[in-house]
Amino acid sequence: MEETLTISIAAPTARILLVDDNAVVLHVVSSQLAEYDCLITTATGGREALDILEREEFDLILMDHMMPGMDGIETVGRLRRMEQSRGLCTPVIALTGNLSSGSREMFLSHGFQDYLPKPVDAAELDRIMRQYLPDYRIIERVQPVERKQERKDALSPETVALLEASPLFDYREAKRNRIDPENLVLFSKSAEKAGEELGVLYFKKEWKAYTIMVHALKTSSRMVGAMGLSELAEQSETASKEADEERVKELHPILLEQLEEVLRLVRQAIQIEKEKG
User: Fold this and answer.
1) For residue 190, which of 238, 233, 239 has the smallest C-alpha distance?
2) Helix runs in the chain, H state only
3) Residue 266: which CATH number?
4) What digits encode the pLDDT tens for the residues 86-140?
């Protein structure tokens, strides 16, 4: 069944900075933002984002909360200090895969204006765009529109059938999160890297880095519809965050086994798309 999405504004000169270390998230959210006709710049980490912000100004920033190196909270703190001399306070929206009862208060206390759960829901993104883009209607920078779009399959019928038949995938969730051939390739590359790095981090017992890695895997897996893998990654994230070595030890081989099963199916889907392309 096709879903109908409503885009309520067009912002052809609005400048958006999207910051996330996850290539799948960058691809999907960039495609969502493109529907608003805005100008999109991407960064893969906090340091890169600050380098860009030293040179350029933006109307809105969407920033991952949990990134390796400089995370979202530290990045926003540095941004606010940097903006003081310019008299600026750019709206920053946290992108997060971790939500709890106090999430909103936590993000507000660290300089964010709001948050968006990942995967990003189209209706919630529309709310953010309407609420936080500056009201530049007088000079026609932001215009109300009534644009409805039908979300159709971006994959070949053969690939759709392959994914729908697998217990490893929830194709409805994948379609809702805009799965397409490029997503499959990006996921394959990032998941292969995650599998390799998780083994090293597990051996070294570097739980903070392990937590960040499984957090990213949790999000990207869900975005391609690999819900079982996403749930295992979430359990591993919780265990590693709490430095529960016994639980991590229990989950680690199961996680890597399911990751490899998902990757085999994704590689098969990529091959089908290449042959159909």
Assistant:
1) 233
2) 23-34, 46-55, 72-84, 103-109, 122-132, 157-165, 171-176, 181-204, 207-223, 227-241, 245-276
3) 1.20.120
4) 888 999 999 998 776 677 888 889 999 999 999 999 899 999 998 998 764 444 5
